[in-house]
Design a protein that fits this description.
- This protein is of the alpha/beta class.
- It starts with a helix and ends with a strand.
- Strand 14, helix 8 and strand 15 form a beta-alpha-beta unit.
- It contains 13 helices and 19 strands.
Length: about 425
């Protein structure tokens, strides 16, 4: 009896081993395919996927015998979407009180649980990749969320993360509390050239894919009509952050809203400008010349402006003008929302697409800002961003045609990441 049981167990283990090694093949039939590189959609395309990667894309192709076919013949299929400015550990901060309460009353483990939930929300909305640009006081918990997703412990997008972000001492919340109290801070305070280099090394040691720093604060208009700001770091400090990051093979994102902060970030040699409301013609020319990416995060500005008041409404209007000029100057604009700056449960990140089209992009340009252009910024151009052989099988689908109505991307009905289906609501 014992011998028979042992033989059965061995047979079962062999069967499991063989099954694990058997190539997993599936075909997706797309009624219309926007592949992220072609100027026009491909009708009746067949996407063949094996072991999580795309092996072929054929117009009117026939699936091989025995391969499972996912029928999206009445849908528009696209590459997985990418949001390259998020905060999964934040739940909205229209007011300072909302921000402070999260850091003061929520433990980092609790915030990490909410971050995993937010990652799932993003995936459900069709975003198979996030670049998360700081934890807002939750230390290195973004690395843990990224790792848990990568290990298959929780569902969520692929992630690149920036951990803690940086400002000089005293230039980022929490501020204004009694000096007798030790309160958490939303960033890592960094001072001096050597302090900047050490902070970069520390964040990289703990898993940062990107380094982010705050180039400016205190945004205000002056008589010249330009949105100005107070620059946080000295040029020497900012240059040290960028140089050390690049030396270690990491890239740098700069929060830069006013013209002064943007100019300082460009002098330092950053790779991306985040927000950029105060971009002037001269700064746009410089960004285009240097090949720096701009991630405008229009959604968050429009969302917080009514609650914050002051210059925020005017800043939203100013960014529209900058966006339109950037299009004419061929600035590399990449999709990013600043989700977390608004509540993940309240606003779909895909709303950003609608702003891009309203501001002058074609729907195809808007889609590419979150697919092929986004993968280029991430350094994943050989892996993601288009639906073609050799790429990871990150695929989404909508019922309608986003080239006619970009808001269709707010109603994603099918989500596949790495060949695994996470959402399927098309019938």
């Amino acid at each position: 009896m014992k011998r028979g049981l042992a033989v059965l167990m061995v047979a079962l283990l062999v069967s499991i081993s063989l099954n694990a090694q058997t190539p997993q093949r599936v075909a997706v039939r797309a009624g219309k395919l926007i592949d992220g590189k072609s100027d026009r959609p491909i009708a009746n395309a067949l996407i063949l996927i094996e072991d999580g990667k795309i092996t072929s894309v054929t117009a009117g192709g026939t699936p091989p015998a025995g391969v499972e076919v996912i029928d999206l013949s009445h849908a528009t299929v696209l590459p997985g979407l990418m949001d390259l400015h998020t905060h999964v550990l934040l739940q909205g901060d229209v007011t300072a009180a909302e921000y402070d309460e999260q850091l003061l009353k929520q433990s980092i483990p609790y915030r990490a649980i909410l971050a995993a939930r937010n990652a799932r929300i993003a995936l459900d909305h069709g975003f198979t990749v996030l670049r998360d640009l700081e934890t807002e006081g939750a230390m290195y918990a973004d690395v843990d969320v990224k790792t848990a997703i990568a290990n298959g412990e929780v569902p969520g997008p692929r992630m690149q993360v920036a951990t803690r972000a940086m400002t000089p001492t005293g230039m980022y919340p929490l501020l204004g509390y009694s000096w007798e109290l030790k309160v958490p801070t939303g960033v890592q305070y960094v001072d001096g050239v050597e302090g900047a280099r050490k902070a970069v090394r520390e964040q990289v040691m703990y898993g940062a894919d990107w380094i982010k720093y705050y180039s400016d604060r205190k945004y205000h208009f002056e008589a010249d009509g330009v949105l100005h700001s107070m620059v946080n770091f000295t040029d020497e400090e900012a240059k040290a952050i960028v140089d050390e990051s690049h030396r270690l093979g990491k890239r740098v994102a700069a929060h830069a809203i006013g013209a002064d902060g943007i100019a300082a970030a460009l002098r330092a040699g950053v790779d991306t400008i985040e927000h950029g409301d105060g971009l002037t013609d001269a700064l746009l020319d410089e960004i285009a010349r240097k090949g720096v990416y701009w991630v405008p995060t229009i959604s968050v500005g429009a969302y917080v402006a009514p609650g914050r008041g002051g210059n925020w409404t005017r800043m939203v209007d100013l960014e529209r003008v900058a966006f339109q000029k950037a299009l004419k100057k061929n600035v590399k604009i990449v999709f990013g929302t600043d989700a977390g700056g608004f509540d993940w449960k309240e606003l779909n990140q895909a709303r950003e697409f609608e702003y891009y089209v309203q501001y002058g992009m074609t729907p195809m340009q808007a889609i590419r800002s979150a697919t092929s252009m986004a993968s280029e910024l991430l350094g994943w151009k050989d892996k993601l961003g288009t639906i073609e052989p050799g790429k990871w099988a990150d695929v989404v689908a909508v019922s309608g045609d986003p080239l006619k109505d970009i808001s269709e991307l707010s109603r994603v009905k099918f989500v596949m990441k790495g060949g695994v289906v996470y959402k399927s609501e098309l019938h």
